[in-house]
Write a structure and sequence with these properties.
81% helix, 0% strand, globular, 495 residues
């Protein structure tokens, strides 16, 4: 856990700095500066770019994480693995871009009535696809070089800081909306360029592939992993973006804008999981290579409870301040109130099973995750089709809740049956009881006229009511150890 703990700390710091910037952008500025349609446009563009970029990767992200240990050899420039990844990415981009452009008549027809603004910026998605793909390639490469933090820093901090500048330029009428979209696209592509420069400066940009190193058996393994990686990665990104795209197609850009903003608050819970997942996946891959199940199970159990502590605290903190949230967002976003609840609850299931996806995809049963994700995607699409017409925005959130619960239950049962890996314990039950009690007590706090004062006091009380018993009952040994280290530094005591 040494590498994981070290990078998790810095990665989490960057991630939560990004969360603060994201809150300023998504929670404060977007609702005040942009119309719901304009917010919807920016979010829909990103969703399409992410979806097609993941398809364009042709499953090579899974190949990078799972197969790179065979290529790892700094003296031989890792046998030009990065060059192979870029060749695959270029081929994938040409296919993905062609598919996107061929779908234009259908997408335009779907957008004519409720999302016509998207038609104006349809072609802006193509460069976004390319540079999103490029970022994925470079970020995965850095991850297997045990430097997952760099991509997090560029994307979560630098990109969001630049986005903040662009929004402020629009707010002060220095630029118009058309110029905002152009600058927004440039900001989104910047992390990939920064990673490219970083690779050059660190002399890790090895582009000449060593094709002779790839034996027939290794080639067969790469193709197999890549094929199932396509299913897994594409399905994974599909389930992360399909709801916003379906809301846009069925309810329009304005509804998509409301959903995007309220969805953001529900996904804040996942920030620590994303950070730990990026870092731990490489360690897990190396552990599977030597069949070190004890290390894998240890990471699984400890990450589950640590992530659950942070995730549950964030959830009760957000829901305890839900009225304050809509003081910030404004009444036009009120239709998305229960979106925050259901997306938050759905993401708590993700937190509870921790890094199960990374364990499966790096094992010999990696194909199974592709099937699970495919089932997840089908359930999500069908449930969205059934629930959005009945419940509107909230229907999309309920669909996510149902789908994620089933998906995570499948992964949980699979890992237990195959390896007897099981991360849950009585600590999770105790954690839930502490959270319910802390939230219930917070409901007796009188509402203050100034919502900023109310947020500070209410959040502070919820934190104390939650954190003290969590520490006292030693719910997470890792968190307790970290807190003890901080206390010792503050008090000047030596261990």
């Amino acid at each position: 856990m040494g590498i994981i703990r070290k990078q998790s700390i810095s990665g989490t710091i960057y991630s939560y700095l990004g969360v603060i910037l994201g809150f300023v952008i998504m929670g404060i500025l977007f609702p005040r500066v942009l119309s719901t349609k304009e917010v919807g446009l920016l979010r829909v563009m990103v969703s399409y770019a992410t979806l097609f970029a993941q398809f364009a990767g042709l499953g090579f992200g899974a190949v990078t994480i799972k197969i790179f240990p065979h290529f790892r050899d700094a003296a031989r420039k890792h046998h030009g693995f990065l060059g192979i990844a870029l060749m695959v990415a270029l081929a994938g981009f040409l296919i993905a871009a062609a598919v996107y452009l061929l779908l234009r008549p259908y997408l335009v027809e779907q957008s004519l009535e409720k999302s016509e603004l998207f038609i104006t910026y349809f072609y802006y998605v193509v460069p976004l696809i390319f540079f999103t793909l490029l970022f994925n390639v470079f970020d995965n490469y850095y991850r297997v070089l045990y430097n997952a933090v760099k991509g997090i820093y560029y994307k979560e901090v630098i990109q969001r800081a630049a986005t903040l500048v662009v929004i402020l330029l629009f707010y002060f009428k220095t630029i118009n909306f058309h110029q905002l979209v152009i600058l927004y696209v440039l900001v989104l592509i910047s992390p990939s360029l920064m990673l490219l420069v970083s690779l050059i400066r660190s002399k890790q940009l090895f582009l000449k592939p060593d094709l002779k190193f790839i034996t027939p058996d290794l080639r067969k393994q790469m193709i197999n992993v890549g094929f199932f990686g396509i299913l897994a990665s594409f399905s994974g990104v599909l389930v992360m973006n399909i709801d916003i795209l379906m809301v846009n197609n069925m309810l329009g850009l304005s509804a998509a804008g409301i959903y995007a903003i309220t969805f953001y608050f529900g996904t804040l819970i996942l920030v620590p999981l994303r950070t730990m997942g990026k870092i731990s996946s490489v360690i897990i891959s190396d552990a599977w290579k030597i069949n070190d199940k004890e290390t894998i199970n240890d990471i699984y159990r400890r990450s589950s409870i640590s992530l659950s502590v942070v995730g549950v605290l964030l959830f009760i903190g957000i829901w305890g301040n839900i009225d304050n949230v809509f003081h910030i967002l404004g009444d036009k976003y009120l239709p998305g109130r229960m979106v925050i609840f259901f997306i938050g609850m759905a993401n708590l299931f993700d937190i509870a099973v921790g890094i199960s996806s990374h364990i499966i995809v790096n094992s010999k049963y990696y194909r199974s995750l592709s099937y699970f994700l495919l089932v997840f995607a089908v359930i999500l699409v069908v449930s969205n089709l059934l629930l959005i017409p009945v419940f509107g925005l909230v229907g999309a959130a309920i669909a996510s809740f149902i789908s994620k619960f089933l998906y995570n239950s499948i992964k949980f049962v699979f890992l237990y049956r195959k390896f007897r890996f099981q991360p849950l314990s009585y600590h999770h039950i105790l954690l839930i009881l502490i959270a319910i009690l802390a939230y219930w007590i917070s409901t007796f706090i009188p509402t203050f006229s100034n919502y900023i004062v109310d947020i500070i006091i209410r959040s502070g009380i919820i934190f104390i009511l939650f954190a003290v018993p969590v520490y006292y009952f030693r719910i997470s040994e890792d968190i307790n150890q970290r807190v003890d280290v901080i206390f010792k530094k503050i008090t000047g005591r030596q261990s």
